[in-house]
Write a structure and sequence with these properties.
Structural class: mainly alpha
Oligomer: single chain
Order of helices and strands: HHHHHHHHHHHHHHHHHHH
Radius of gyration: 21 Å
Largest sheet: none
Strand content: under 5%
Mean pLDDT: 85
């Protein structure tokens, strides 16, 4: 029996990814990036409290330093679109990450991690966006028929790093101390550059509707036409922020709710948290296949609706089965958005794909700040578990917004 055409192209995407030095190197680099960052993310607040002796409230403010990341991402992305030096800027951003995390590891004053994160690590976050821009350039120049599948495979590597990283970070912090764990994060961040070596790539010479403009043209693409040309990208990114804002609320309060109110065993609550990235990895390649038939934006409507359902499960079910159901739905959310979001963002600003990639990928910092603020205020008024109704409202707004965008931007599909 002959397999469907969409399924038949999936192995081709894998072969294409691992046959290309650029795609293969980017896949390994993003895995190392996800591994390092996710190792530090759950531990940094404990480091601030236990080693630098700041209050819990002050430690929570550390995450607000991420708000500089979109600004840094825009600066790096605009520079990349002017010069076309994607991999050179990627290496500089990775170096900034190494310096920043190593400096935090050796911090002796409470203010140091805050300043370092805001001014140095903000630029390190743009490394991944430069890789996606470089991949986009190469895929467009070769007119690769499985371009979306390649991007999905590369993006899955970042998710895989986030699956393993928290476990590795917890082990390193417990066995050798948080400073050693932070130093390991710095090393992983710098190690991103190794899979790509000294590779240099060109950029497409002739622009099309979906390729970057030449350097002289893209240098003024935003300034010449104003914010109008960026409005679709900014609107889509804003809707993505609404979808993502539930994540910091979930990670901040769901473990507390399961432990203090539901009294679930640690093994059960750990399984609840751990099932989401596994579902995400399973859904990502399937999302690419389905999106070819339904359209990306239409599938994202379903993804945002999954987020509404997940938060309703957290808020209203009060059972372990409800928590698992919510996390499975969340795995569906990120399996769709993680694989397709960067593709849609680049198509919404085809004349400056590095800028588009940087804006989209750094928007998680804004979402984290919004979620943290919403959760902090919401839990004081609504308590647990009703605070999860707030991200459900955000998700509903995102669902409606994406549905409207899918009607007005058919070319993105």
């Amino acid at each position: 029996m002959t397999p469907p055409a969409d399924l038949a192209t999936t192995p081709s995407a894998l072969r294409t990814t691992f046959a290309s030095p650029l795609y293969r190197g980017a896949t390994i680099a993003l895995f190392l990036s996800g591994l390092g960052i996710s190792a530090a993310a759950p531990q940094i607040a404990l480091f601030l409290v236990n080693d630098l002796h700041v209050s819990l409230t002050t430690a929570g403010l550390y995450y607000l330093t991420n708000l500089t990341a979109p600004i840094a991402g825009f600066i790096v992305g605009a520079r990349s679109d002017r010069t076309g030096k994607r991999l050179g800027l990627f290496r500089l951003c990775a170096l900034a990450g190494f310096v920043g995390w190593m400096a935090i590891a050796f911090s002796t004053q409470a203010w140091m991690p805050f300043v370092i994160s805001a001014l140095v690590l903000a630029f390190s976050g743009a490394a991944g966006s430069q890789l996606f821009a470089a991949i986009h350039d190469d895929l467009e120049s070769t007119k690769n028929p499985v371009a979306d599948g390649v991007i999905s495979v590369v993006r899955m590597a970042l998710t895989a790093g986030w699956v393993i990283g928290p476990v590795l970070g917890s082990f390193l912090a417990a066995a050798f101390g948080p400073r050693t764990m932070l130093a390991a994060t710095a090393i992983f961040t710098l190690a991103q550059v190794l899979p790509l070596g000294f590779m240099r790539i060109g950029r497409p010479q002739q622009p099309t509707a979906s390729t970057p403009l030449p350097a002289a043209e893209s240098e003024h693409v935003v300034h010449r036409r104003g914010l109008r040309v960026m409005l679709p990208l900014l609107a889509f990114t804003g809707l993505y922020v609404l979808v993502y804002a539930g994540e910091p609320i979930k990670y901040g309060y769901l473990p507390i709710y399961m432990h203090d109110t539901m009294h679930l065993p640690a093994v059960v609550s750990g399984a609840v948290i751990g099932i989401q990235p596994l579902i995400e990895l399973l859904v990502m390649p399937l999302a690419i296949v389905v999106a070819r038939r339904t359209g990306m934006m239409r599938l994202m409507i379903l993804g945002a609706a999954f987020g509404v359902g997940a938060n309703l499960c957290f808020a209203l079910t009060g059972s372990a089965a409800g928590m698992f159901a919510g996390q499975i739905l969340m795995g569906g959310v990120w399996g769709i958005f993680a694989g397709l979001g960067i593709i849609v963002a680049q198509r919404l600003l085809p004349g400056a794909v590095a800028t588009a990639s940087a804006i989209f990928m750094s928007s998680t910092a804004i979402a984290s700040a919004l979620g943290g603020l919403t959760g902090g205020i919401g839990v004081s008024f609504l308590g647990l578990p009703l605070v999860f109704l707030l991200p459900a409202v955000y998700g509903l707004l995102a669902t409606v917004g994406i549905a409207l965008m899918s009607r007005s931007r058919p070319a993105v599909e």
